[in-house]
Specification:
By secondary structure, the protein is mainly alpha-helical. It has one domain. The chain is 88% helix and 0% strand. It contains 5 helices and no strands. Helix 1 packs antiparallel against helix 4, helix 3 runs antiparallel to helix 4 and helix 4 packs antiparallel against helix 5.
Length: 158
């Protein structure tokens, strides 16, 4: 029981610290540079791609068959495409008074849906990482923490 509590608290800390730090950066840094935002989002994307390719997929292949891993990846991609199409359809029905849909609001909704959906597997990844080994759990938690900084910055910016 003590191990589960420790893992839960570490996951909670790393999962919220990165987003909080990014939000503080977004509020403190008044000048919003698209170049800096592009850099930090690219850094976060690259970091998570590295975690997926070098940590998560090899672990998943060790636990399950390659078909299950591919099905999981494809279902995730299809899920986000479905969310995008659903929001797009809703915005096309509710055109604003000026005849244009609010692109920023649409983007914010899609990002919020994506963040809400992907925070669940983030928690599962941290918990699974700690189950496999302390080193893997801490490296995943740290990578996810760094990955969440741009999310908080993006949310505070809009």
């Amino acid at each position: 029981m003590e191990e589960i509590l420790k893992t839960t608290l570490l996951g909670l800390f790393f999962g919220t610290f990165g987003t909080t730090l990014g939000g503080i950066m977004g509020v403190v840094i008044k000048k919003h540079s698209n170049k800096f935002l592009s850099f930090i989002l690219a850094f976060a994307s690259g970091l998570m791609m590295a975690v997926i390719c070098f940590d998560l997929i090899p672990e998943a292949l060790g636990i399950s068959a390659i078909a299950n891993v591919v099905i999981g990846i494809v279902l995730g991609i299809i899920g986000m495409i479905f969310c995008d199409l659903l929001v797009e359809k809703k915005f096309n029905q509710n055109v604003s008074l000026k005849g244009k849909s609010n692109v920023l609001l649409k983007t914010g909704i899609i990002v919020s849906i994506g963040l809400a959906i992907h925070n669940f597997p983030e928690g599962l990844a941290i918990g699974s990482g700690f189950e496999a080994s302390m080193k893997l759990g801490l490296s995943l938690a740290l990578a996810i923490c760094l990955h969440d900084i741009p999310e908080g910055r993006f949310q505070s910016r809009h």
